[in-house]
Design a protein that fits this description.
The protein is an alpha+beta fold. It has a single domain, classed as Roll (Ubiquitin-like (UB roll)), CATH 3.10.20.810. 15% of the residues lie in helices and 34% in strands. The protein contains two helices and six strands. The strands form two sheets. The chain has a four-stranded mixed beta sheet, covered by helices on one side. β3 and β4 form a beta hairpin. The longest helix is centred in the middle third of the chain and has 10 residues. The radius of gyration is 13 Å and the shape is globular. The chain starts with a helix and ends in a 19-residue tail after the last strand.
Length: 109
């Protein structure tokens, strides 16, 4: 992500920004998670997704336990600079339930 865009990201009152994670090849939305400045920096530096866990109040490296690493292809910021779109090549399921995507349940047709 270009330095200029990086400095313009608008974090919420808790220092977080929503990050939508999408499969770079299929465009399937895999998950939504939160990033803070440190997890975004780690994501950019490592080329793999890092997030902030609100429930555990700690950084987490996606796939560190499961092996389902997400390799970053591109990070985009929306027009309001308050949401990120992270395009990835996933190495497995995105959801902690084992589903490919966290959005596997249909509420309406």
């Amino acid at each position: 992500m270009k330095e200029e865009l990086l400095s313009q990201i608008k974090y919420d009152g808790n220092g977080l920004v929503p990050a939508i994670v999408q499969n770079a090849n299929t465009n399937e939305v895999l998950m939504m998670a939160w990033m803070n400045a440190e997890s975004l920096r780690l994501t950019i530096e490592s080329g793999e997704t890092w997030f902030w866990s609100r429930s555990r109040s700690e950084l987490w490296h996606k796939g560190a336990t499961s092996g389902n690493i997400q390799t970053v292809v591109e990070i985009r910021v929306d027009c309001d600079e308050d949401t990120l779109l992270v395009l990835v090549n996933p190495a497995g399921a995105a959801c902690h339930t084992g589903e490919r995507s966290c959005f596997y349940r249909n509420m309406a047709h």
